[in-house]
Amino acid sequence: GENVEQHPSTLSVQEGDSAVIKCTYSDSASNYFPWYKQELGKGPQLIIDIRSNVGEKKDQRIAVTLNKTAKHFSLHITETQPEDSAVYFCAASFYGGSQGNLIFGKGTKLSVKP
Amino acid sequence: SQTIHQWPATLVQPVGSPLSLECTVEGTSNPNLYWYRQAAGRGLQLLFYSVGIGQISSEVPQNLSASRPQDRQFILSSKKLLLSDSGFYLCAWRGKGIMNTEAFFGQGTRLTVV
Fold it and tell me: Where does residue A57 rank: exposed (0-12), middle (13-18), buried (19+ CB within 10 A)?
């Protein structure tokens, strides 16, 4: 089955700096890669996703890149703000004729220092 | 709009006691339903998923079971809790079909087994 590795487990940056979180996946059949943000005491929420037919997607300060050959994808947050502090999870899944389950990485705790 | 309800928010139970966590979804029909456990340093681990009433698939062997007695109701149970069952339990739903990729999470239940 699918296995997702996520690094780093913790990341501390100064406000205004960029943050990068990296994930690798094992199943070449996976074609959908979302990123979720979890604030303290809450359930995760989708912030951005990418499908395997594109290499990069951007939404304001957040971008995701995908390298299918290497089977890795990354989350980039620019101009970080204190409200970006949270735990971020990457995930991988197959979607097609049937819907595969989302398999998550272990999470990255991002701290943005003002 | 769709909403997901999960309760209780926190629970402290003695070892050997039974467990019942409930999750309900509103505003959608025939969703895929999921139970995840979040333990420190282990990310989001998929425990059970269900594609329909009475249809339960288990991802990991454990002391827990799940049931789906109604279309939008998902229950996580245990007959006798272990200390290792402590964690943050999250219920989630996804719509069916290849375009319904996003998972929507409940607010979670913090279970402490003492």
Answer: middle
pLDDT at A33: 95
Cα–Cα distance, B12 to B19 (Å, whole number): 10
Q: Do A89 and B43 touch (CB under 8 A)?
A: yes
Q: What is the mean pLDDT of each run of 10 residues along chain A (114 residues)?
A: 93 98 94 94 93 91 96 97 97 76 93 96
Judged by CB atoms closer than 8 Å, whether chains meet at A46 and B97 is answered as no
DSSP states of B63-99 = S-EEEEEETTEEEEEESS--GGG-EEEEEEEE-SSTT
Q: Facing residues of B4 across strands?
A: B25
Contact residues, A window 47-106, toward B, CB-based 8 Å cutoff:
49, 89, 91, 93, 95-97, 99, 101-106
User: Across the interface, do B44 and A41 touch by the CB < 8 Å criterion?
Assistant: no
Q: What's the gap in Å between the CA of B105 and the closest CA on chain A?
A: 5
For residue A97, the model assigns a pLDDT of 58
